[in-house]
Amino acid sequence: MTTINLHLQQVKERTTESMEEMWVNMGPQHPSTHGVLRLLLKLDGEVVRECIPYLGYMHRCHEKIGENRAYVQIIPYTDRLDYLASMYNNWAYCLACERLMEISIPARAEYLRVIIGELQRIASHLIWLGTFGLDLGNFTLFMWCFREREMILDLFEAVSGQRINYSFMRIGGLALDVPEGWLADVKAFLAWFTPRLSEYDRLSTDNIIWQKRIQGVGILKPEDAISYACSGPMLRGSGIRWDLRRDDPYGIYDRFEFDIPVGPNGDVWDRFWVRRQEMEQSVKIVEQGLKAIPPGPVLAPVAKKLRAPVGDIYSRVESPRGELGHYIVADGSERPYRYKVRAPTFVNLSALPVMLPGYMVADAVAILGSVDIVLCEVDR
Amino acid sequence: MWRYLREIWRGFWSILLSMQITLRYLFTRAVTVQYPEEKRQLPTRALTQHVLTIDLESQELKCTACDMCARICPANCIHLAGEGKGKARRPKWFVIDHNLCMYCNLCVEVCPFDAISMWTGKYELGGFSRTNLVYDMETMHADGFYPTIMTPRSPPGAAAKAPAAPGGGKGGGKG
Amino acid sequence: MTAEEILQQIQSRFREEIRTAEVRRGEACVTIKADRNFEICRFIKEELGYDYLNCLSGVDWTADKEMEVVYAISSLKQPGKIILRARVPQDEPVLRSVVPLWGTANWHEREAFDLFGIRFENHPDLRRILLPEDWIGYPLRKDYQDERFVAYPWEDRKPGSVPRPTTA
Amino acid sequence: MVSAGALEQFYALFEAWGIPWIVPRLAIMLGVVSIIIGFISVSAMFLIWWERKISAHIQARFGPMRVGGWHGWAQSIADGLKLLLKEDIIPTRADRPVFILAPIVVFAASLATYVVIPFGPGLIVQDLNIGILYIIAISSLTVVGIIMAGWGSNNKYAALGALRSAAQAVSYEVPLVISLLGPLLLVGSLRMTDIVEYQGGTWLGILPGWLIVVQPLAFLIYFTCAVAETNRLPFDIPEAESELVSGFHVEYSGMRFAIFFLAEYANMFVVCAIATTVFLGGWQGPLLAPWVWFLLKTYFLLFVMIWLRWTLARVRVDQLMHVAWKVLLPLAFVNLGITGLLVLVLSPMG
């Protein structure tokens, strides 16, 4: 080895030594972690080399609470899991119990569940779009999305009396029928909402900065998506056409016509675009539901004190964030013996350390935003 | 070269388009409700403070202290004791700790006598101490007709007053 | 593949390890002995093609002095679901980790370790995930005791008993 | 602001009384500085209020409505008072002198640039014959203050923000200066008043004689760079609220934070004032008083800056560099080359 080469190598070694990688603590209090999530990022300049998530800042042992409550009493607690899609959590839990206890619910309740659930999906995606805009620095989009979401909350408030934590579904149907004129209000909302989507597009989708920021960033390969059991828009963004509403239909989703948007590349843009299109599909589903909804009761006659037969069930639905599963073990008493929530964002978030390395800090924020986490659900 | 220039033009043009839509919004009406001056009209079903409903003729509480609501409450925030036997049974004391209440409406749904309601429209519940949110029978005693799940619409007979029953479940203001 | 076929395949391959096997609600439910859980999972993933681990959850069967790990496995390409249960003794709850098969098992197993104290061998990073690192005990075990934990007075409450809040 | 003759008389008066020559000059300087600071504070407060109102109405809300009665006009004053009264926190492990100096450096740099802004004919503190050069030189001092803030805070986010800011300032100075060279070639002077007076006539008899008419590309490049120089969206990566939690001033609170804030808005005013002077004909305009025209044009540009901020998302660091070196710089050179050629060809005839 010549002297110059030796010298070069020494310089190289020294630079790799002195090029210190920096551990940056992103969170628990950080505007872009959407709650109290702590990410430990190893930064090489602006580039993320490694990411270690720390969870549990919101842990309240939802499952232990569930084991100490009667089946009906758990419903209000499910609201507090994914507080941006409470109706869907209600539905998922009630559906699990209904499957376990073999209760069938009236047709009107089924239709109302679909209508309300899809409105909830729109609301949830809206808030995702808004906060994602916030992550990318576009505050205006956030406010616009909130305005439309408020209208959905108004609709839900007229139904259930609550704006966030509805506790509206019951085992066997719904707590109440919708008030008079509510379905017309939903129709009016849809008519107002559809043109708004193109306004959002003007501000975000068509905008070059928006496109450049999220295209080709945070790629999640399909095999990784399956290995990490990602679900919902995360999975569909990676090019896998999988939607429980179509592939394992629950409720009456098999009666509805809708497309399942997928993105080919698995980058942040695809996840964004999948959610953006899902809003349109949800509008379509709600419109079909409004046309077909029959009159009748909304609550099946169920016993006051619900007891589930001995056994267990893993029931899953397609919540706005992905596969929301409930694993319930019943021992024949009024309370579940074991109650586990397979939170979609908990599982989706576990793929974050795979997606982050190699991208910049600004991308890290966008990628984390594209996972669409709700920390209350992640930590349970 | 051509692609380069077209890319620049596309970027410039898309930014102009975005600016056009924000400019249009600059002149639209704001949707904010200026809260203390203006108040939002709540729908009938808005869950607010608990109230113990009364029989409008005899002005007596409908509650028979059957403890159903206290048993169903997931947060364990309802406590009561009754006195008397049979039909004459009435609550001796009745306490709801609103600090714990999750507004699930289960207590109202389970009540067989239509004796408790959350559709009261009283939502300004703030106080300076946690004990302000612990309601006893006196604070929850209804002063007139309140809609409930069994009688959701209007009071029977025109004589009764309806303190908080805004009409229909409208979806709030639009645009 | 129907649930019966799945059952048949697993049974023909791992006759010794299987404790019970049944088909319920169209799902193949298999209870296995814990010592070869990894091989069975690999068989299910690689040879039966059920490559999507929906959920991994622990259950504490105190009455049987056993702990259980439940794998809910399905596939994105074919119908059919498998509920695989592996039972381990309560005083020595150790299993092989399935992280090499499914990345998602990482956090699920950490959660089971955190809340049930089930230990997974070969897990790359078996730490507590939801609770603080210095937490003592495993809260989801049925015998978990903590002075901060107040049981919900469900059966034993009588009208008028224990008026906790004071009047305003 | 005062004509040279009057100043000489003022100095002579003091000399006659036997007071050292430094005293009247200091008095004048102090007076000018306090006028400028007063102007900066008032305009910054107005700008903050204005930005909040514009952003609110873009987002279908009202913005501040309470303080002061009519549309919350006194909100900024109240906020300023609050910031004055707040506790001044200096992190224990901060580099104290650097930490304390940083906001002052930033503010001083933006303060100094006000000296050569021509508000109207005669309404200029010091009409330097190198006015533009002076502004460009002084305004790049801001970045020193920002790096000091980032370093002195001893915070990783602040350091990242400061480094981003340094990279950004270095890159955007280049196209900014080169885009200004085109108009300056036409004018043939660096003096601010000369530039404004050059734009007095009309182009082809109908268009106003503003340089934006013949130099639209230079104006766009300059304006883009100006947005970047003032660290505003879409180029606000040094503070990048959602990534770096407001970057270099993350550790600042109270009055020091207020000074950063003030300097940002003062800088905005400066870059828009330069754009008005160089491209929009400065104080030139019919009917209204010259300084009104100047302020109107400047505030229109400020409005565009605010409007941009509430429309666009933030770019990434590498994209920022891409825009500076691969888009703006070549375009600026092209513009400069074409302008130079035209000047060369046309000047013997004209």
Would you kindly provide a written description of the structure presented here, covering whatever features stand out?
The complex is a heterotetramer of chains A (380), B (175), C (168) and D (350). Chain A is 50% helix and 13% strand. Chain A starts with a helix and ends with a helix. By secondary structure, chain A is an alpha+beta fold. Chain A has helices at 3-18, 62-67, 75-79, 86-101, 107-135, 139-160, 182-203, 208-214, 222-227, 233-237, 244-247, 268-292, 344-349, 352-355, 361-371, 375-379; strands at 22-26, 38-44, 47-54, 169-170, 173-174, 311-319, 322-330, 336-342. Chain B has 175 residues and is an alpha+beta fold. Chain B is built from 4 helices and 7 strands. Chain B has helices at 2-26, 68-72, 106-110, 137-140; strands at residues 51-52, 54-55, 60-61, 78-83, 90-97, 116-117, 134-135. In chain B, the strands form 3 sheets. In chain B, strands 4-5-7 form a 3-stranded antiparallel sheet. In chain B, strands 1-6 form a two-stranded antiparallel sheet. A two-stranded antiparallel sheet of chain B has the order 2-3. Mean pLDDT of chain B is 77; it is low at 158-175. Chain C is of the alpha/beta class and 168 residues long. Chain C has helices spanning 3-13, 37-47, 105-116; strands at residues 18-24, 27-33, 52-61, 66-74, 81-89, 94-96, 119-121. Chain C is globular and about 50 Å long. The relative contact order of chain C is 0.13. Chain D is mainly alpha-helical and 350 residues long. Chain D folds into 2 domains: 1-74, no CATH class; 86-340, no CATH class. Chain D has helices at residues 4-17, 22-58, 75-85, 96-113, 131-139, 142-152, 156-187, 192-198, 211-214, 216-229, 241-244, 254-279, 290-309, 317-346; strands at 202-203, 207-208. The longest helix of chain D is centred in the first third of the chain and has 37 residues, at 22-58. The mean pLDDT of chain D is 83. Classes of the chains: A alpha+beta (380), B alpha+beta (175), C alpha/beta (168), D mainly alpha (350). Chains in contact: A-B, A-C, A-D, B-C, B-D. The A-B interface holds A 69-70, 72-77, 79, 140, 144, 147, 150-151, 154-155, 157-162, 165, 167, 175-176, 178-182, 185-186, 188-189, 192, 199, 202-203, 206-209, 304 and B 10-11, 14-15, 17-18, 20-22, 25, 31, 42-47, 72-75, 102-106, 109-110, 118-119, 149, 168-175.
